[in-house]
Amino acid sequence: MALSKSPIILCELRDETKQRIDAYAEALQKSAAQIGDHGLTDAEFWDSGLFRSAIEKIRGTQAATMEEKRNFVEAILDHLQARGKIRGWLSTGSGERHDYEVRLNNARVCAIETKGCLDGNNTNIFERPANADEFVIWSLCQNPGSDPAHNAWSGIHTRLSAEIIHKKQIVNGVIIWDMLCGTQGRPCPKLEQEPSRATTVGERRVPPPCIYPRPRHPKRSLIPCRRAEGTAPMHLPVSSHPP
């Protein structure tokens, strides 16, 4: 059977977004020595390493913050619970590898482990909880300059699938969905084709998520999922996007 030539994910890093980022980065670098009250000449500024240190500090701050990701996930879970799609949910705190446990209406427990962009090394680090009937990895990528297609391919096929086989642990599904989806920084083709598919969650209008059911058996994880081959059951209601 021929494999599908469909893209792994519909959204992409668009040329205009990349050009805008590149132009701003160039302008920022040209003006860097004139920003702030550091009292250095241009030569002293570049020799001091101040610009590089400031960039690294900003990168570290952006990477470390989880508040915006938590707010997005918890708003989605609250939305589902308010509409009777799940019984409830709880945050597991820092004591567990996974981040959330969701009690589904059929009494099953779905554990969720959140990740950043899937092309990072953190994608390889996960542990299916012993009490989980279903285990889902949810990617929330905060970088609008990151290529969604590269992240999805690298994370699902290269990193995650290899780790599933190595650990012999079943991951029921992967969700790619975050606060940038459907914004100017990351336009969603689903909404461009059919704007009515957006859902209002709090003050946001969010597009449907991208869902990747995983095979029932870890050794099949490098084989592209097709329903006929048997994917692991996944009942978390976001698989059909919030009503």
Structural descriptors:
two-stranded antiparallel ribbon; about 240 residues; alpha/beta; disordered C terminus; globular; single chain
Summarize the structure.
The protein is of the alpha/beta class and 243 residues long. It has helices at 15-31, 42-48, 50-64, 67-82, 148-167, 189-193, and strands at residues 86-91, 100-104, 109-115, 134-139, 173-176, 199-201, 204-206, 210-213.
Give an overview in words:
The chain is α/β, with parallel strands linked by helices and 243 residues long. It is built from 6 helices and 8 strands. The strands form 2 sheets. A 6-stranded mixed sheet has the order 1-2-3-4-5-8. The chain has a two-stranded antiparallel ribbon with strand order 6-7. Strand 6 and strand 7 form a beta hairpin. It is globular, with a radius of gyration of 20 Å.
Helix content, binned percent: 25-40%
Biggest sheet, strands in spatial order?
A: 1-2-3-4-5-8
How would you classify the helix and strand content by structural class? alpha/beta
- Large-scale geometry: globular
| Largest sheet report | 6 strands, mixed
Q: How many distinct domains?
A: 1
Radius of gyration: 20 Å
**SSE succession:** HHHHEEEEHEHEEE
* Residue fraction in strands: 15-25%
Count of helical stretches:
6
Distance between the termini: 35 Å
Number of extended strands: 8
Average pLDDT rating: 84
Spans where pLDDT lies below 50 across 5 or more residues = 221-231, 239-243
